[in-house]
Amino acid sequence: MEGNIMVHRMVFLVLILFVRMAFSDLPNIWINEIHYDDAGTDLDEFVEVVAPEAFSELSSITLTFYNGTDGKEYASSTLDAFADGETVSGFKLYYLEKSGIQNGAPDGLSLDYNGSVIQFLSYEGDFIATEGPANGLLSVDIGVSESDATLEGQSLQLQGNGARYNHFSWFGPLTATKGTPNEEQALPVRLSFFQAIGEARDIRLIWRTESEIDLLGFILDRRINGGEWQRRASYLTHSELSGQGSSSSPRQYEFIDDRVEQELIYEYRLSTCDVNGSATSPYLAAASMSKETAAVNHFSLQQNYPNPFNPLTTITFELPQEEFVDLTVFNAFGQFQQLLFQGMMKQGIYKVAWDGSAYPAGIYFFELRSALQVLVRKGLLVK
Questions:
Q1: What is the pTM of this model?
Q2: All domains in the chain, ordered by first residue
Q3: Beta bridge partners of 52
């Protein structure tokens, strides 16, 4: 008898270990926002999902919609069918516009990775799924709901600070933020730009965070002429790479790389590290040194080179005096795409690289703006 009990205990412990291992292998992906009911005709219904920026197995993630009355699924879609939203702090937002999301009570939806359930959420109550990936599981009621009194353009959404689903809480209905971070939601580090600027004797790396959460600091790697990546500096060895911990205030960082030579292309990748030791997907920048020249006496923006380009091009500009400048990328419709640099610069010649790999092919405009002048150059990204 005791032997049978021991065997059962061992089997039970092995089962617990297996379940824990299975769950630990699931990607850090979660449902972030949903709209399913309002006072009108339920316009613009959607579900938003957050995934790590580096996660590429989009077809392996499935969102399944469930009817809570009978526990059966009535629709599903893989993440590769979602529209792309913003990328923030190493995370990417995806959203699925879908009419006919059922209104409860209750109804729900599951998120799974190759059949292993990551989440099974419901609204207006809970229920047990009777088929599909969540078959046999009890849903988790998110605790907020919409109704025929909900204003059009509102949604249910997560708020709070963090980097995982359980760091946030559900609120709503609130103004919908489809494809962008929710109004009161902050992901670990929100970086507004990261650039490498080639100067006469060194390369200056500049980046700015709009907010930080539990940030220990930054890790900087570089490679030369497409070679192997090597560690250049980190918050452990260079105090200027230390983070603020948690802050909602913008902060600009700077690192001078003086171990550089002429005629070489230097690429940099910047990663963040939080108090739990988790690192984000790296941000990339590239530059080469500017050659020694005679004193600059005019404000100018040279044609980007190469042009056409795919995907990297370099923008060179000259400043005759110390001044505050912005270097910005716009698309052919004049829509803002990326802030390449913003800050006070000394007199000199500067080179800033732009990586267009995340943007569609087409015409782009590079705008250099100071307090008194604006210069624009046109570039062509081909793919």
A1: 0.55
A2: 30-186 (no CATH), 190-288 (2.60.40.10), 300-381 (2.60.40.1930)
A3: 91
